[in-house]
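JOB MANIFEST
job_type = single_chain_structure
chain_count = 1
residues = 82
[input]
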Amino acid sequence: MTRQNTITFSPTVAEISPVDALWVLIQSQTKAVRKALVKRLIEDEQMTKAKQEAMVKETLTRAFDELHAGKVYDDARSLFDE
């Protein structure tokens, strides 16, 4: 007679956040790859900041041009609707 081992597994679901999963993936890369990722992230952040600054500059330039042209708005939000 053979003895049967009965093992009961309780199903557990480990929840790993996408950020944690990505972090583990990044940590497993070579130093050169990690440096390249950091460089790209910094460049992307700088590009986003430059775009935002350009938008602010353009908006303020337009607002001052319209102000100097005598266009006065009771509500500044109308500058962004046009």
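[summary]
Helices lie at 18-27, 31-68, 78-81.
The mean pLDDT is 84.
exit_status = 0
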